[in-house]
Structures are given as structure tokens and as C-alpha cells.
Amino acid sequence: MSEPNDKNAIKTAETTTPANTGTPDRKQDFTARIKSTKNTRWLRFGIVSLIFFLWVLWLGNPWVLLVYPLLFDIYITGYIPFTWWKKSKSHLTRAVMSWVDAIIYALILVYFVFTFVGQNYEIPSSSLEKSLLVGDYLWVNKMAYGPRVPQTPLHFPLVQNTFPVINTKSYLEWPQWKYHRLKGLGDVESGDIVVFNFPAGDTVAVKMQNPDYYTLIKYFGRDVVMNNPEQFGEIIYRPVDRRENYVKRAVGLPGETLKIVDGTIYIDGKPQEQPTNVQFNYLLQTNRQLTEQDWGDIAVSRDDWSQAAFTPNPADSENWLIAGFKPAEYASKPFYRVPLTQSAIDRLKSLGLVTSIIREPAPTGEFLFPDGISSTWTRQDYGPVSIPKKGQTIKITPENWPMYERVIRNYEYHPDSYVKDGTVYIDGTPADSYTFMMDYYFMMGDNRDCSLDSRYWGFVPEDHIVGKPMRVLVSFDKDKGLLDGGIRWNRIFKNANPGFSE
């Protein structure tokens, strides 16, 4: 690459052995190359060496030192002719290779920055509104919790798992390295907004990735999904660090017990403060049709609200939607289902638009985590669940097996584990206890009734944690044109990790 050696083209062995046989004396050639190296190049090499050794120390992997001789050759000896093209007589070759050289150098730099320092991410869904908005582009600090050494080291740095347009994998599945996280600036704390790899994204139906593979199995059955590739596509496995990136708020930490009562989170029996911008779904009737300006005033996107037809027929299947409303009085009034913050509700009331408003009742029968453990849980009344902690030993029974089955089988790699005839087997051996190998987290969105989160797919293992959003780089409103308010200027460089009082 261009920073490294332009001496490759001029360093040739002109010395010969004492016997004057014409055979180059390698020792004299090496010495000549060393002596001809300018002091400025030695200085650059010294700086690079210092950075390299500090990096190896941080990695804790002495095998990486095998790369050091290559750096020495690039900066000092120049045996490998990286810049051969600079002496080419072809102008086209020099022009093309200069671009190739610059691109490769940039990609290597991007790879290391994105892997060990930080990366930009886009918010694609409304699960964290209004804390983070659809169209926000975030800078995520990977050093906050310590960057992971790549588990899939051979991957293209600018895409997560699939090349656009050509729709092929952007990574090689071999080699796979064991999980190892470097020392970071701190640990995940309660209330942190965290970027992580989607735990249920290990298996993917490539033509239908939303809902995820495991939800498809619940809806259609495994045989249907596996035997209909024209509908669901190929079923593939993705390594941990190549799974889709999600962003949620950490509401439960390792070793804690979490329960949700009427939308309020309790940790170890104590109610937790709600984020300032927490949203819940409401059933809303207004005294007139709300306009685009009205929705804009309360910052509700067009995709987030829906209007329902009122029907006084008590036998109608949608009649549960109007629980708490007065049919005789409001039958002619507009009726909406919409997620709202408390400030949005206060704004609507101050404008004199609200005639009735109630929290939407949580539906029963949803596919909540863990499967089959309780038919009475809802997204608003959920738990309790005990969140696994590294080194913690629990009694394992057929009754709590659904809570920890995925942790044991998939995340901690004991695939030959199951329940049979009332006995739990781990690695094919009867077991009545288990000691966890990793920390786990319970993640939820601030848009509480419109968030597919740990209530649906369970715990987030520590090896899935990517980093901590720090700043909004830029934000685009998909409902507006670029020249018509499409850029949210007030969000640029805004804190991307608002807590409970921001």
C-alpha cells in the first residue's frame, strides 16, 4: 500500500560473495537495505511498532506477533515488491493500481476502526422511539464495553452479512475464532441503550427474515418452513458477529430477577423509573379527524398510527378495541390506535382534541419467551424471570428448562441437552444443576407495546454485545423530503444514549 515502501523498486542486491561467483550475498544485501533506510522511515516504523505492540498486548494473543516481520519488510527491507506498479511503463497500470492501492489501504483501516474502535449504525424501526428515531444514524462506541476480537475474521467491513444487489454472503465461515472480549471502558449498566447481535438470528430463512426463523416455526411448523424454499428461501446459519444488529435498552442485568406489572418493570422486587420518552399503545378518540399537522405536532409517524372503524355490534371481533368507550356518545367520532408518550397525550389534551383515551389492553396468546412456561403472561404483565450470571449455579428442572434451554443448548454450546421422562439431560448425562459460562441481559424497547425484544426471544448473551451508541451523526425523516424538513437538524450530534431523565 502506498504508505509502505517505495524502496521496493530500487533495492536490489548488487554485492556478491567474496568468490565473485555472481551469487548475491544475502547478509550483505540485508545490511545494505538497512543502511539505506532513511531516518524518517525508521521513525515511522518505530511509531507503527509501538502501536502494534500495544495492540498485541491489548489482544492478549502472542500469535499475532508473527505479523511483525511483514511490517519490518514493508517499512525497512522491502523484499516484497508491494509497489512494483510504480515503475510500470504503462500509464493505465499505474493509474489503476494507484486506485487499487488506496482502496485496499482504506478498507484495511476501516476494518480495524470498525472492529476495535466504533462504527456507524442506522435505526430502522420504531422500537426505541422517542428516545431514538427511525432514520437516526448513530456512532456506536465499541470500546465502551470492550471490542470483541472478530469471531468471523474474514469479512467485508462495510456490510454486516450480505452484499447488496448480488445477495451473497459478505464473509467466509472459516476460520471461526472463540469469543474473546478486550478490556473496555466499563460494563453494561441498567438503562444503557446497547447495540447487539440478534440472538435468534443464528438460523435464517433468507426470503423471510421478518419474522425471524423461530417465529416462523411457531406459526407454520418446522416441516412447512424447511420444505418450502420457494416461499421461505434457503435456511442458513450465521455466526454470532454476522447476525443482524439490534438496538434496545438494557433493563435487566446478570443475576437480577425481572418482572413487569402493568407496564412497570420491577428488578428484584423494586419498581424502576421509566425513561422520559417511554411510549405505550393507546386507544384514542378525538372530536375531529387528526391532520398531518396534528400528528407532526406530537411527533407521530404516519406508519405508527392506524384508524379503526367503530362498530356498536357487541358480537364483532374487533369490539375489544373500544373497551372503555361510550358507544352512544362517541360512535361518530374518529378512533385511533397509536403509541404515545405522556407529553404527546398532554399536548393532545391541551389542544382540546381528546374525547376518550385508554391504554390498549395487552393481547393474550402471543408467542412470548419462554415457550409454554405460562399462558397468563402478557407483554404488560410478564415474569418473573431470573437472568443468568456468569459463574452462577442454578437448580435445573423440567419446569424451568424452557427458561434456560436456549442458553444451555445454543449460546453455551451443549446441543445434546434435553428433557426426557421427567429428567434433564445435559451433554446426554442426567443433570440437576447448571453453572453459566457467560453473563446475560434482558433488553427492551422504549416503545414498549411496539417492540420485539427479550419478552419475545429471551436473553442476550454477553458475546452478542456490540457496543454503546454515543451520538446521532445525522437523522432523516422518511415522511418528508430532503428539502422539506427531511433532515432533522436538531438531532445532529445529539446524545444517542438518553437515560431516565433526559
Q: In words, what does this structure look like?
A:
With 502 residues, the chain is of the alpha+beta class. Helices cover 25% and strands 20% of the residues. It has 13 helices and 22 strands. It has helices at 26-35, 39-59, 68-77, 91-116, 213-220, 222-226, 229-232, 292-297, 327-330, 342-350, 401-411, 454-457, 482-486, and strands spanning 118-122, 136-141, 193-197, 203-205, 235-237, 245-252, 257-261, 264-267, 270-271, 280-286, 306-307, 335-340, 354-359, 382-386, 393-395, 418-420, 423-426, 429-430, 433-435, 440-444, 460-461, 465-475. A seven-stranded antiparallel sheet has the order 1-2-22-3-6-20-21. A four-stranded antiparallel sheet has the order 9-8-7-14, with no helix packed on it. The protein has a four-stranded antiparallel sheet with strand order 11-12-10-13, covered by helices on one side. Strand 7 (257-261) and strand 8 (264-267) form a beta hairpin. The longest helix has 26 residues, at 91-116. It is globular. The two termini are 46 Å apart. The model is unreliable at 7-19 and 312-322 (pLDDT under 50).
